[in-house]
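Show me a record, fold above all:
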Amino acid sequence: MVDSLHGTGPTVVPVTRRSLLSGGGGAVLSASALALLAGISLPASDARAAPAGGSDVDILNVALGLEHEAIAAYQLGAESGLLKPDVLDVAVLFQSHHMQHRDALTEVADALDAKSLRNQKDVLRLAARLELGAANAYLGVLPSFPQGPLKQVSARLAADETMHWTALANALGEPLPTAAFSFGV
């Protein structure tokens, strides 16, 4: 929550996955939290382990979102009329780099071949894998947050993602997990 500028009391800022990843809505993730969301291994000295197997689709979507934000930011700067010519040249150059990054990521996304989904079961398996990855990612970042609204929202998101995975696994006829600690690994 942030205080209202107009003195009418607190204003609630909704926290979404996108705002967690992009830093909007007053939520900013640490580098280690982003690594956890992306499924990147952290150094052995870190007491928290990264969640196993971050989804390629999730990672690509986060990366594409970041590239689109950078492209838009440089566009706003270029059109603002506030930049001196030499700085404008650098902004345009950096924007072109981000456009090339976006294009490269899009090519990789195309290589994942969504056309391989042939039936309902394939779609349900994909959805279940993504939900499990999301549940584990949210559980993985919880220790990074101090007590407060961001920790609470992350825990609630983890619970929802776990429920989604459970419903999808049930629809697929998969057995209940046998391990006591099935999530957050």
In short: Residues 58 and 175 are 25 Å apart (CA to CA).
